[in-house]
Specification:
The structure is a homodimer. In chain A, 36% of the residues lie in helices and 24% in strands. By secondary structure, the first copy, chain A, is of the alpha/beta class. The first copy, chain A, has one domain (7-300): UDP-N-acetylmuramoyl-L-alanine:D-glutamate ligase (3-Layer(aba) Sandwich). In chain A, the strands form two sheets. In chain A, strands 5-4-1-8-9-10-11-12-13 form a nine-stranded mixed β-sheet, with helices on both faces. A four-stranded mixed β-sheet of chain A has the order 3-2-6-7. In chain A, strand 6 and strand 7 form a beta hairpin. Chain A is globular and about 55 Å long. The A-B interface holds A 91-92, 186-190, 207, 209-211, 213, 219-224, 227-231, 258, 261-262, 265, 299-304 and B 91-92, 186-190, 207, 209-211, 213, 219-224, 227-231, 258, 261-262, 265, 299-302, 304.
Chain lengths: 304, 304
């Protein structure tokens, strides 16, 4: 870890209220930057740029600090309320049904990088307004790897801005629905080609319980999911996947095809742990040994 | 091939009329036994037990004979009409919409094995009434490997008979929906355990464009699909998958985990070819070299 590159994440820190077949939780730690920073902290130093209100529980921040996450870029708005999301999952744990979204101070999020973050070489742009993602890119000196997440909302509502971001992205992590929506192609391999033509030389298409596909200039790599038998809460699985993937790249210090493949396996393993508990419970209790063990077992599921 | 074990398939030989986004075909060669026997013929001698009417075109039989398929178990009913199926696929090539089914002489199919088929050691029971599948089992002396296909219709309508068959099956090939329906489990890994507890020591769960999973007593193997960019007609893909899988086992002469994994890859490759043309067009034009090449490229998609 001492040789690992630092990773900067820009995204949300939120309070999630969750209903899943496994139970309920009220205002627990959530948000893309929370999942990403805790996940990536197993591999590399992590810097966060996000915003919360002064109602945000100190106990939640303590969890991030315990993972050595650098919070100097976390803006705390005086008198502001933190972003809240309430959602429900059905028995098949498919897409969450959003019951309530309170953007609160996240609505006016204006990401500002502390000066010491501007030199950071690895950037994960969590799912926020593409105009804000562009603002972040404008504050970085010369990143080596820009990784991006987005969602249907921006693909449909802010396509122009998103395309401007994409032209500057190296690694785009998206799901099947997003790939089809963005490209207009039904066939997923044609969709991948079309998305890569928008800028990112490497894309990873997430397929939920079916795993993920890596499209790299050197070839295609298809990674199965870890067989999770008892899903508790899939919230944050996508951001945790990204955290393992980019954390692995930060630790290894390169992005060749072989390393990218291992990184996708690591992301898959991290995401599987995230689903095994509510909120970040399982991630916060995780050890590097558990990650290494499951990564080895994962590989045995597709070794001939 | 000279050392390969012989494979017996019992199933349907039919006339399919197809509508897909790639075009239409009228009364072309179809049926589980047709797809299976042509696919398996690349690996092993194949015997067919099926029934057609005397309206069945000689040109279709010539295709099977050209692949050295043993048709002595193909009953031709004098004055009978052949099983006909008419179906349509939408733009995403998901499940076919059945427009018309004429069972015709297939309705009274009473599979009778020619005496020289009774010693055959590898059996594929295509998707027919489980009572008929039991009848076939009763006519075999001592099969080494009994492989089975079925469908929702029998799972729901003939569960008792199907469970009797399953208790005598070694290898069960089914899709995700069937696994969930048969087991009552939503989680696919729990569903697999439940299905294996019904008899088959090995099961393969097909997941369409997401590939297939092998559940074997020695472990789990997850195989991605071949990236087909231009699907023409997915009819028969499941039977062709089974043909490559069981054909591979027949050629190798054993069923250990390593061989089973390679067999699933071979099945996946065969199925991908089947989808690239209408009816059996692509399979009938296929060469062993093409199969070997694609199998090698397949493996590169999940090699670390």
């Amino acid at each position: 870890m001492s040789n690992a590159q630092t990773v900067l994440v820009v995204g949300s820190v939120a309070l999630d209220s969750l209903e899943t077949p496994a139970g309920q939780r009220h205002e627990c730690l959530g948000g893309s930057a929370s999942y990403f920073s805790v996940g990536a902290s197993f591999f590399a130093p992590v810097q966060v740029v996000a915003v919360v209100g002064d109602d945000f529980p100190e106990a939640h921040l303590a969890h991030l600090r315990a993972r050595d996450v650098n919070l100097r870029g976390l803006e705390v708005v005086k008198g502001g309320r933190t972003f809240r999301w309430r959602g429900r999952y059905g028995s098949n744990f498919g897409d969450a049904q959003t019951l309530e979204t309170q953007l609160n101070c996240f609505e006016h999020f204006d990401p500002k990088l502390p000066p010491e973050f501007r030199q950071t070489k690895l950037l994960f742009l969590g799912n926020i307004d593409p105009d804000l993602q562009l603002k972040v890119l404008g504050q970085l000196d010369s990143p080596h790897l820009v990784a991006l997440d987005t969602m249907n909302f921006w693909i449909q509502g802010k396509r122009e801005a998103l395309l401007r971001v994409l032209s500057r992205v190296d690694l785009f992590i998206l799901n099947e629905t997003e790939a089809r929506l963005l490209s207009g192609e039904t066939n997923i391999y044609k969709a991948a080609d079309a998305v890569r033509a928008m800028g990112p030389s490497t894309i990873v298409i997430k397929r939920g319980e079916y795993g993920a596909m890596l499209f790299h200039e050197e070839g295609l790599f298809v990674c199965p999911a870890w067989p999770v038998r008892d899903v508790v809460d899939p919230t944050g699985a996508g951001d945790t996947f990204a955290s393992g993937l980019i954390g692995h790249l930060a630790r290894e210090g390169n992005q060749d095809f072989a390393t990218m493949k291992r990184a996708v396996v690591t992301g898959t393993v991290l995401a599987s742990f995230a689903c095994e508990g509510f909120s970040l419970d399982r991630l916060l209790a995780l050890t590097s040994g558990e990650i290494a063990r499951r990564s080895g077992e994962m590989a045995s599921h597709f070794a001939l």
